[in-house]
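Notes from hallway chat w/ T.B., transcribed later so I don't forget. T.B. wanted the structure written out for a chain they're using in a teaching module, and asked if we could keep both sequence and structure tokens in one place. Agreed to drop them here.
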Amino acid sequence: MPQAQSGKKASTGKSAPSHGKKLVIVESPTKMRSIQGYLGDDYEVLSSVGHIRDLASKKEIPADKKAAYGKYSIDVENDFDPFYVVNERKTKTVAELKRALKNADEVLLATDGDREGEAIAWHLLEVLKPKVPVKRMVFHEITKDAIQDAVERTRELDTSLVDAQETRRVLDRLYGWDVSPVLWRKVGSGREGTALSAGRVQSAATRLVVDRERERMAFVSASYWDVEALARRAGDAFTTRLARVDGAPLARGTDFDDRGALKKAVVALDEDQARALAAAIAAAGEASVTAVEAKPGTRSPKPPFTTSTLQQEAGRKLSMSAKHAMSVAQRLYEKGYITYMRTDSTALSAQAVRAAREQAVSLYGDRAVPPNPRTYRNNSKNAQEAHEAIRPSGEVFRTPAAVAGGLDRDEQRMYDLVWKRTVASQMSDAKYETTTVTLSVQAGERVAEFTASGTVYTFKGFLEAYEEGRDEKRSDADKADDQSLPALAVGDALAISDVEPKGHATSPKPRYTEASLVKALEEKGIGRPSTFASIIDVILDRGYVSKRGQALVPSWLAFSVVRLLEEHFADLVDYDFTAALEDDLDAIARGEQKRSEWLRSFYFGSDDQVGLRNIVDNLGEIDARELNSTRITDTATLRFGKYGPYLEVADPADPEAKPRIVNIPDDLAPDELTVAKTQELIDAPVAGDRVLGENPDNGKLIVVKDGRYGPYVQEVEPEDPENVDEATGEVASAPKKKGAKKDAAPKPRTASLLRSMSPETIDLDTALRLLSLPRIVGADPESGEEITAQNGRFGPYLKKGTDSRSLDSEDQIFDITLEQALAKYAEPKYGARRASSALKEFDNDPTSGKPIRLRDGRFGPYVTDGETNATIPRGEVALDVTFERAVELLADKRAKGPAPKKKTTARRTTTTRKPAAKKS
């Protein structure tokens, strides 16, 4: 592509006499409506609804292009030329834009101002091919003044930004389409059969979560003890904590390494020592003040929000996922309440600084702001991003109370967060004084020193408006709660009471949350903040990670995927290498590096790197069984198979015997599969293949089994007496006779256990009732058709011919009467025909205003407000879902939008990538 042209108002396309309207094209329908109102009747504002075209799939490439573009939809031998097709869902949109173009005398491409928005503008230019002047219109907030100013200050398309975005797209296609098939062959499939995938950022993010779990698995906890006591003087009491014994510091959690060993010389008390010392301190009953130290301090406000810090704070304070946070922020931006939400900048415009300071003074007084405005250093090198932080829009900020009427609940909470952070960023430092008191107790022959600290804010400053949230840290247990201390002086005597020895254990690093993962990705320079939300969504969707509360727990599937990538694609998941790729893409965006040269080096190799093609062509043999295996003990190996993880347990007495298979509970995290837990699973009574008794009708044995799809009962032929263990009721496999021809046998009757049943407690009578299903309830007196009650994959139901009705409970399968069944059929099949069968009910959804219910459906538990259904992610316990989590899941599902409908007849416009014509 040609380099970017200079100049504010250069145009593209041929000039034409002015006779029509100016056509403004934005991405979003919401933006379209807002901007139309600001520009008036001389402009027609239309939306592209995001990208209008993308790289073709393999089946979309014409036969005459297959040789060059067939593998990736990219001609790697011809400067990595991409082959694009117009999205089949956008043909109508493109037709509408072309219709409007016929009556336009000028086109303003008003897509977002980042590199993705620039690429969308370029694609519009390539597809529409306007013959009228074309200008690039950029704005960072949707207010009347900002939009009108943007119309007056247009520029040319920035081809360096387009190059950067296109390079990123080509890079991700090459990476994903070369590496992902290796995962399919050697690891298998993901959650619920979804295809596995590898990606430049998603694989590094998955590795981060897996690496943290590895640290937790290798962690060795250490125990240590201390003593707490209540110090009292003249009615004032405060808590103190033992700090030193005979002048030597007492061990804290931070003094131990991850292997449970001390890192420095400290006193580590065990339980007996702590209790003996506590008894001696209690007997002394008195302490003297040996030191009082007061230190002043200040705290400064945090900068205004960037994309990354907004996602982090929304996770901490609002319990929003990164995707949910970005969805809400985008709505606020498109409605004109905040500035553009994809930015790396912490800077504020002069007008925004003035607005924040004025609002702070009006709310908190003249001392609330410092004499000079605050400026924040912007560490981003990326000239292509928006040049201002996320803030309330306009030259005068509207308070949260003033905008509440026009926003839903999530939008109100997000606006409140942005408003507070922005105003606080321009406020004065908070000032405080921390006083630390040291007390000495003569405890028998030992001297015990206690400390207590208290902080008093002498001036709250920015804390009047906002205080940043924080992530969990493993040293939190060693921190004493803040408290108010009385005025004390050296030599004062205090009474000591309530002396209590306390035991502690060191803890591993906490698992990542979405907020802390976003922070880690940004700190390592992996990916762009604007893509973090979608990356986290992908690794959740693939089953690499699941949520336990806010924590991200990796699956054993993720361990297999990461192990393969580390062993065979080491550079591609190396954190520094991945960050370097991002730096190179930024250099392309700044026009400092050539797109085709960089892609050639990445793909074919150079002096600096091996090259993706060379790596893939020289993979060698990959042992899939070894890749999916983790040795837990000498006899137990964890394996990951088609149906998930399981333990393979060898018999030490007979190593050649077929190993025993032990299922692993779905909710067991990898770091919880310790040697002790493994042995517990191995030693647990086997519920499967247990003989319940004999069917009196035919003499066959009824056996309960535990299968991959859940427990079930089965009717089998009687075994020889020696093959049934009398102690456990387990059926042993009979030795196979060599050479015997196997006769075809009728399929044995089986029946799945109902949800309320357990393989450990089911009895013969219940099993026989299950095997007798479907139960004939009776005949319909009008039609004569037989009505049966049975259990199906979607739950209990009635059936009459082809007509079915769901039952309210499993018990009804066995006890519903004909009269009750006829009443069911008399009700309408759909609609509010019965009392709620929800597992759980919540308050109204803030967006739809309708009650949220937790239900159990055909694909598992889900939450619904009657309009939107959201599946409970695998790994989360359905009944533990809170209202906040339900709202988050529904919001995430809405943000995804409806699944695209498959069409087979729509014609697609295809094209290869051509650079925009250079203007003289």
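Follow-up for T.B.: The longest strand covers residues 286-299. Might be a good example for the class.
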